[in-house]
Description:
Blueprint: H1 2-17, H2 22-41, E1 51-52, E2 64-72, E3 76-85, E4 91-100, H3 110-125, E5 140-146, E6 150-154, E7 157-160, H4 177-187, E8 192-198, H5 200-211, E9 215-221, E10 225-232, E11 248-252, H6 267-274, H7 283-288, H8 290-308, H9 327-334, H10 342-352, H11 359-390, E12 404-409, H12 411-415, H13 417-431, H14 433-436, E13 439-443, H15 447-458
Helix pairs in contact: 1-8, 2-11, 3-4, 5-15, 8-9, 8-11, 9-11, 11-13
Bound molecules: adenosine-5'-diphosphate and magnesium ion (MG).
Domain Hexokinase C-terminal: 217-457
InterPro entries: ATPase_NBD, Hexokinase, Hexokinase_C, Hexokinase_N
Main location: mitochondrion
Amino acid sequence: SGRWAKAMAIVKELEDKCGTPITRLRSVADSMTVEMHAGLASEGGSKLKMIISFVDNLPTGDEQGLFYALDLGGTNFRVLRVHLGGKGKGVVKQEFEEVSIPPHLMTGTSDALFDYIAEALAKFVATEDEGSHPFPGRERELGFTFSFPVRQTSIASGTLIKWTKGFSIEDAVGEDVVAELTKALKRVGLDMRVNALVNDTIGTLAGGRYYNPDVIAAVILGTGTNAAYVERATAIPKWQGPLPKSGEMVINMEWGNFRSSHLPLTEYDQALDAESLNPGEQILEKIISGMYLGEILRRVLLRMAEEAAFFGDTVPAKLKIPFILRTPDMSAMHHDTSPELKVVGKKLQDILEISNTSLKVRKVIIKLCDIVATRGARLSAAGILGILKKLERDNISSNGSQKSVIALDGGLFEHYTKFSSCMESTLKELLGGEVADKIVIEHSNDGSGIGAALLAASHSPYL
Ligand code: ADP
Ligand code: MG
């Protein structure tokens, strides 16, 4: 019928506009490399902030003692306690707790958010073993993973540039987040100092390096997306300080804010961006990360309902609610292998209150999931190629048989299997056989929390 043809035209148009042929991916990678150079050359030189992390030494494996970490960067935060055994002994014991952040605190005041966090941390500290209290005259030591753009001023201080991923707490912007946390720790009477301020990419890089010395970069695919890597200190023209002894510096790219005329953008992306909390910003993040994939799908389905009566004569009311369709639900539908596509049917029923969908309709939904996820996964691979190009590790002649390991983490990478496997196969496709064998994608499970604890250890004032 005419309606079905109209619906299929919308699908076809989406597929065309989301297309990521290899040539386009190469252009994205090249543009990423160019922006990396520009962001390293001068402050504000690029959409890529290329933030100097002040981490010039990554963990070696010799770290020793009891350390805490706090990981804040999305809808949950985690508190960790890690007992490091020292040389050759690794992590002796590791405990953590996950706490969800009530939505009203994500858009409230700085004090309210940090008080909530400090209280949760205090509760966790109270479960410490008898014998593990710090020596007299010493405070407990913490690594703080804070995964929002921060202008780092030292290893343990940095001012918040802006919020992302649905957070919007005006009075915290421009403040030193370590000072904010430290004040809250005082208010709740917790005796603890912050040794290191990092974000999840740097934590993941540090955690990855602790276990594997070939780790050179880390990428997060979770609620948001970002990457960090190890740069030669002499390749950072904007760095004014003394050259670090190691000759290296970890750079926090803030690649979520990347944009380029080569990115395949659709009308849905444009509307999503315009209606977001941060219009015009985080464009790459808005087409590849977990916060947005399900929402893009919802927008396509809404147009199909409105213009092609895809779900019948009336437009399902729930379909009009922004962010009602979450990426984990999209992923569950996309991975549905049952002959009747039962999961798709059930998700449509439970979330959107659309009943009795035909198999034909369900198949179209799978197709839409595939278009949206494939675009995100292939662009993620192009971003990684951009980093490898910057480091000249993208060709066969470079570094002999030296392996380059990229530590990956985040709920999207971990749970959305079709996304991660597409990303990995696209990277192989981009690199070509021989080079592809030297590049390894490694899942660094929870590296970001452990990494912060490791960096707290290597930056301890008591060393
Ligand atoms: P954060 O990025 O907030 O620190 P995570 O790394 O745990 O936290 O990532 C959580 C995000 O991962 C969720 O917001 C969601 O978008 C995505 N995610 C979680 N589970 C799944 C899943 N089963 N399928 C697809 N995406 C998922
Ligand atoms: Mg995280």
